[in-house]
Structure formats: C-alpha cells, structure tokens
Specification:
85 residues; alpha+beta; single chain
C-alpha cells in the first residue's frame, strides 16, 4: 500500500526542542521547495529529510502556507519536514 507523503512546517521550542506545532503545507510544490532549500535532486528527490527554515525563507514559506505566520527565530526553530499519511 502506498501512503501519501505530505510536507509541513514544524515548530520546535528553541530551548527544550519540544515539538510545538505542525502546519501542513496544503499546496506543497516540490520543485519550488527543492529550489528554495537547495535540495540535492539526486540524494533527496522527494525532499524527505528535515530542512531548517531561516529568515531568508520566511516570505517563501508564508506564500506556500497561504496564510500569515509569525516567525520568532530567537525562541523557536522551524523546519520543513515530510511524513506519510
């Protein structure tokens, strides 16, 4: 059975590293994310690894989410992650 892969923005506490939030990216464009996060098409063609979101990625990620999202890099860590559902 093939499970669908979905990508999300995950939010972790910057001190405890506790997972605080998972926001599924409904309109995930694999090609756009590969380009934005400089992913190797040979080693991770489906972008299954974890990719850190930095200040330079904020505008891109907000556009992909299709909603507003407040980033606070002093308190939280943000990642693009994949999961099967």
């Amino acid at each position: 059975m093939n499970k669908e892969i979905y990508h999300s923005l995950t939010v972790y506490d910057g001190v405890t590293e506790e997972l605080l939030d998972v926001v599924v990216i409904e309109n995930f464009s694999l090609e756009s994310f590969i380009d934005q996060f400089d992913v190797s098409r040979q080693s991770d063609p489906s972008m299954l690894d974890r990719y850190a979101v930095g200040p330079d990625d904020v505008r891109f990620v907000i556009e992909a989410l299709g909603c507003t999202f407040d980033f606070d890099f002093t308190r939280f860590g943000y990642f693009i992650e994949a999961a099967a559902g």
